[in-house]
Please model this.
Amino acid sequence: MRSSNPVFSRRGFSRDNGQAGFNAAPQAGGPAVGTQNPYATNPYATNPYAQTDPQLGGAGPQAPARAGVMTIDDVVTRTASTLGTVVLTAVLAWVLLPVDQDNIGKSYGIAIGAALVALVLALAQSFKRKPVPALILAYAAFEGVFLGVISSAVSTYLSPGVVVQAVMGTMAVFAGVLIAYKMRWIRVTRRFYGFVMAAAMGFVLLMVANLLFSVFGGGDGLGFRSGGLGILFGVIGIILGACFLALDFKQVEDGVTYGAPREESWMAAFGLTMTLVWIYLEMLRLFSILSGND
Model:
């Protein structure tokens, strides 16, 4: 099973230098169809987690964990570095690229350029076989510039408290999904994955259609960005982001379980950062609409 995150769906964790990765994640509570422990399928590989003592005629003590494999600590550290870069550049953009009447055109231009560069870097990384930390951090930096200018504009022209609400809302969604996933209230299965992917494709197509109508027809297009429909689609976007988080948590959990190479923790951080950016933007849009309705 691959995550709905565009990074993970492009390439799951892979084998590297003989270390076991995975190409299909197991179902919650057991292995998925077609998914096997790589040690069980390779007759020349020795499973370091279940060695046999020939003198005792049975299983001996477990060997220590292998070096060079991904751990939860690795994922947390890399994610903190990537998100820290996003936050730092967002703050700098907020301060150095004001959105007042004299500078708003220039600031918007830089923000749009930064968003396009971030998109190119994200696509470049997603098509690479191995993660490139410099590329991932560069993506985070340009994404932060875009978020900083957009957040500053929303705070200046709509409501100063909207950005804080969006940040707190994003943190709440992350914590809630993490707790629900750890408590197994969310069961990540193939059916869950298929439903989320279908819903995500439909959501994206509707947003693209709305954008095209707004560009060529003027106004708010189909009305998905304001009013009651805007609120509804904002909530749907946040729910989809929460589903993406659950899929990403599953992918990371399976990477640690199957001993993916440590470098793959950068891909996990990259994917989680993209999902959190999605949730933040949807939160920002939702609270902006609610603030405008007030």
The CA atoms of residues 90 and 214 lie 28 Å apart. The first strand starts at residue 52 and ends at 53. The first helix runs from residue 6 to 10.
